[in-house]
Specification:
The protein is mainly β. The protein has a single domain (3-252), classed as Sandwich (Jelly Rolls), CATH 2.60.120.200. The protein contains 2 helices and 16 strands. The strands form 2 sheets. Strands 1, 2, 4, 5, 7, 12, 13, 14 and 16 form a 9-stranded antiparallel beta sheet that branches. Strand 9 and strand 10 form a beta hairpin. The longest helix has 7 residues, at 28-34. The radius of gyration is 17 Å and the shape is globular. The two termini are 19 Å apart. The model has no long low-confidence stretch (mean pLDDT 95).
């Protein structure tokens, strides 16, 4: 159980992302202001992000072109540091547009830490870093996509949400992700993820314990990893048409 996480996460000052500027194309200069400290980005300078106002909220709209796979073709990504923590909670809201093509799957934002951004088949040796993201899968199913030391293959480990879960289209869903990094040399890392549909009750979708993210104490959880794109590694993952998803309310506690 992760009861200790619930009792300690409120002790740190929350870090919020404020999407400023006017609705329309999301310029690199505005992105730098809203997401301070990022060392790289994919998709902003290429014009794949915009700002929209809807339902009294400001949203960051990610566009995924027909057939686009990976952050260099559709959507995009970046890593925003917020200071090193042993435990962290990320919250945000996502809304997939009506008619969104989930196809085989795609990536969604999460948390990470370490000197390297561990994605795309990078080795998890316990000294360079880790990552915990979400994925949508076929028909809107959900899962956590985790790079940890004991994963069974080169690519991230997949921890499925219950079979009954589906990301809806046209309806906002709030994500709450808690991550506790392990004590070096121990398998005591953990993740827990809840979802809340608009007007519905929060539901625990995943709890996974016994994880190893590191074998040294020099790093912890230190960044919001904004990542969203279709893929997968080949063209069969790309959407059959141009689609978009909106993100809002990013906060780390």
């Amino acid at each position: 159980m992760l009861l200790s996480m619930a009792g300690t996460l409120g002790a740190v000052e929350p870090v919020s992302v404020v999407l400023s500027g006017n609705p329309g194309p999301y310029e690199v200069s505005q992105w730098k202001k809203d997401w301070p400290g990022c060392e790289f980005e994919d998709g902003v300078k290429e014009g794949r992000f915009g700002l929209v106002d809807r339902d009294g909220m400001r949203w960051l709209r990610a566009s995924y072109a027909k057939g686009a796979v990976g952050p260099d073709q559709g959507g995009g990504g970046w890593r925003m540091p917020f200071g090193t923590r042993e435990e962290a909670e990320l919250r945000y809201t996502v809304r997939f547009e009506e008619g969104f093509d989930f196809n085989k799957g795609g990536k969604m934002p999460g948390l990470c830490g370490g000197p390297k951004t561990i994605t795309g088949g990078d080795a998890v040796n316990g000294k360079d870093g880790f990552s915990v993201r979400l994925m949508w899968r076929k028909d809107g199913r959900g899962q956590a996509y985790v790079y940890h030391m004991d994963q069974p293959s080169k690519y991230g480990d997949e921890f499925d949400f219950p079979e009954s879960f589906r990301f809806p289209v046209g309806v906002p869903v709030t994500i709450r992700m808690q991550v506790r990094i392990n004590t070096p040399s121990k398998k005591d890392g953990a993740i827990r993820i809840w979802t809340t549909p608009l007007g519905g009750a929060e539901q625990l979708q995943l709890e996974k314990t016994g994880l190893r993210f590191r074998q040294v104490s020099e790093y912890g959880i230190d960044s919001l990893l904004f990542n969203t794109f279709h893929g997968g590694s080949d063209k069969s993952w790309g959407p059959a048409k141009d689609v978009a998803a909106d993100f809002a309310g990013f906060e780390v506690r």
